[in-house]
Write a structure and sequence with these properties.
single chain; three-stranded mixed sheet; globular
Length: 179
Amino acid sequence: MVPFRDRLFLVVAGQAKQGTSIGGLQHLAEELGLAHSVKWFPFYIPDPEVANYFELCDWVAMPYSSLFTSQSGVLNVAVAHCRPVLASGLPTFREVFEVFPLGIMVRPDDRQSLTAGIHEMMEVWGSFSAAAFKAAGQAFSWERNVAVSSGVYCQLAQSLRGALVSPAGRSTTKVCSTR
């Protein structure tokens, strides 16, 4: 979302999921008299260009349906760019927001809650702590994930040591280094 003067600009960026009609959404924006306040970029955005879109906005809206059950890479990119997030109160987001104050949560599939959340975000988007984004970025970093995952695999390998024995009577499992 990009405030411009006293208006809210909506930036819709990225390739739509199969079955989603961007044309229908554009028509709805026109019917509602909002077409001038929506910037459409409905195409695949290559990784090197993603940062441009996050730098364009002040905050990110992720009003996902209650049917959404996956993780969201968009949240990680918003965190990397220190952009507050307005997100549906789904388990994926609740788990993160309970530890890191990164934005506002709204009830999924609830227009009134979303409307109230947008109004609230317009008032408070600049008040979120850069330290919270830094801490979240570190907690969800690739490096931390590798360290945790490799630690688990090494522990598993050590527990299997001796359980896998070659015909010559030697262990076939190498033990990991625990740096």
